[in-house]
Write a sequence for this structure.
DNA sequence: GTTTGCATTAACAATTTTGTTAAATAAAAT
DNA sequence: ATTTTATTTAACAAAATTGTTAATGCAAAC
């Protein structure tokens, strides 16, 4: 039947909304069922437990979060400066598109230590693959005197901090943001520009 | 009696631990009671409800978070560069001392929209008082050609992003951090230094 | 010593939340 | 058409969680 697949999808879509906004502890299976337009027994039929539904959502989100960094900085065939600039912008755009992603993943990893290991297995290799190539490029540029010498891991932490924090802390920095830019789009444009500027200056040879 | 005050304090201390690590939804009043060494009816006797205990904790944490920024940057009688450097370091140290603070406040504000307004009433004036003076100093320094001209709100967002993000996302960036510095203290020293460097370069006149 | 008021306990009530199942229904296969 | 399989519902079970109260203890005040 075709209905069944669509109901399963409806449940997952509703669960995504519920878990992302309220977290595992705050989420209610009955709310998920209601939002999906099914009885809550259907959740048991398709997924057996709240935990199972959550894992489906969480795994996907963890994957997307890793991807957000990996995808942004994997572009080859550019100058170091262009690669970084494009990487920062691309990463920023991704986070701006899914602003709830980092907070959700961080929280659920934090509140369940058993997920630490799983998270690290997924994040570890990703960072290796990015940093390896980038560190060599950085070193070569520094050798040629084109930029400052620095640890690429510190650089990546700078970039991610700048790109992600505004969105994580949005409810708190809102008064500051609202004053800074009337609409969200303007804020994102200005903020992205600022982040690129900060990183470029960090690397500039003095 | 003297016991009563100490029990009340024991409950609050246990509640702080419970709420900070698990959030409002994940916290269990019975766990708080156990950790405080009292029956759970005592919680009702002293505070009436879970909500009331939570508010006591939350209000205090919100206050501390505001203070972390305000206190760091209010020092007068220094050159702009020194004021910023000391401010960044002082703010970093505060967050490093209470690393769970930002995540807790952000999450609880996020999951309860009715707190947005309250938060903004507390954060808004604080930012005004800091940014007003700083923006003038910045402008004057820029007039003298000593530094780049920029919006102090963007600058503050840069600083707070760099100082806070590592601690919020610690469980995720751990593999990167562990590689970077063997112990926490070393990481904090390096990271603080990096954050100061980034901001100083951001302002340097080119 | 009795009374008064606060602190504490144990038992319980109410609600919520998740999980389960047997029966009903619809669809598909033979 | 009949059998078989998959889907759906309604009712229920079990556990957890918060909130409540009546009874008890206990120390200080009178």
């Amino acid at each position: 039947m075709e209905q069944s697949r669509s109901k399963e999808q409806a449940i997952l879509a509703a669960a995504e909304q519920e878990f992302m906004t309220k977290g595992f502890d705050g989420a209610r299976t009955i709310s998920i069922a209601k939002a999906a337009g099914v009885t809550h027994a259907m959740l048991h039929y398709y997924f057996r437990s709240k935990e199972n539904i959550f894992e489906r959502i969480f795994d996907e989100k963890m994957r997307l979060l890793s991807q957000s960094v990996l995808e942004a900085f994997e572009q080859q065939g550019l100058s170091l400066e262009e690669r970084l600039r494009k990487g920062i912008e691309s990463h920023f755009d991704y986070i701006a598109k899914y602003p709830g992603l980092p907070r959700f993943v961080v929280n659920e990893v934090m509140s369940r230590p058993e997920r630490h290991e799983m998270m690290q297995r997924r994040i570890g290799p990703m960072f290796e693959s990015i940093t390896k190539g980038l560190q060599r490029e950085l070193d070569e540029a520094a050798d040629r005197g084109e930029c400052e010498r620095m640890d690429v891991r510190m650089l990546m932490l700078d970039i991610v901090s700048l790109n992600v924090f505004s969105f994580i802390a949005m409810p708190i920095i809102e008064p500051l943001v609202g004053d800074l830019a009337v609409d969200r789009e303007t804020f994102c444009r200005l903020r992205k520009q600022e982040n690129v500027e900060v990183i470029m200056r960090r690397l500039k040879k003095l």
